């Protein structure tokens, strides 16, 4: 039997997934003590069941990760047959290489925790670098939110009487490292790979967090709707700088397609005040109070999660 458990990071998404699977969320007690420790207690019989934990490792990242680890351990102690981790947003994924001498490779550390705690399989969405998949020694599946985002943007442009074709639209990567990601989104949006792909040259400040400088934009965006594609937005600086360059080079308008809204304080306000026309994102990370803004269009990934987990309910 399949049983679905929700961590506390994104209970609304977990409830949507339960509806997709036509099951009820299973009961779990999560207690947070005043000294910041967490206690998890499974309140159902899970012996010989396949148990799925839905938990994004978003802010507060460390607390949400520890909750996931403890929940997995509790399920294993109750003799669950398999424990599946559905991690819509995989925190620490951007810390996947050693940028400077003396740094840790944080994503590898998190992966080793997941493996050692006895998790059978891990799912996530649009991992920052697909090469990280090779670090896992347990089954791993990198799902994509591009189809859901592409459908939503297609509908938005249809309502504005803008034909969704390469003659009207340019796909933009906000940095060199995201070119393949942007290309994949374009393939989903147009159904082929014959389209304009532009890229912003960016220099990141490794000594200061959330600091980068956009230098230029290469590619044809003139008289086109520029769709900037990225896996995550935190400070919003990369996104806003790319939008500025696209408009400066003659783009008619700019739309953002960002999978994960891992916002720092003030990011929502910055994007709302920017020249970006619409900001499309998913519910992989729960919307925090104060992060709502008019330009944001939320797209749910609950259907994609439900489709991925259906194999365990048969």
Provide a compact summary of the structure:
Residues 2-118 form the Ribose-phosphate pyrophosphokinase N-terminal domain. With 314 residues, the protein is α/β, with parallel strands linked by helices.
Task: Give an overview of the whole structure.
The N and C termini lie close together (about 10 Å). This protein has helices spanning about 10-20, 60-75, 105-115, 145-160, 180-190, 235-250, 265-275, 300-310, and strands at about 1-5, 30, 40, 50-55, 80-85, 120-125, 140-145, 170-175, 195-205, 210-220, 225-235, 255-260, 280, 295-300. By secondary structure, it is α/β, with parallel strands linked by helices. The protein is built from eight helices and 14 strands. It folds into two domains: about 1-145 and about 305-310, Rossmann fold (3-Layer(aba) Sandwich); about 145-285, Rossmann fold (3-Layer(aba) Sandwich), CATH 3.40.50.2020. The protein has a seven-stranded mixed sheet. Helix 1 crosses helix 8 and helix 4 (about 145-160) crosses helix 5. Strand 4 (about 50-55), helix 2 and strand 5 (about 80-85) form a beta-alpha-beta unit. Helix content is about 30%, strand content about 25%. The model has no long low-confidence stretch (mean pLDDT about 95). The radius of gyration is 20 Å and the shape is globular.
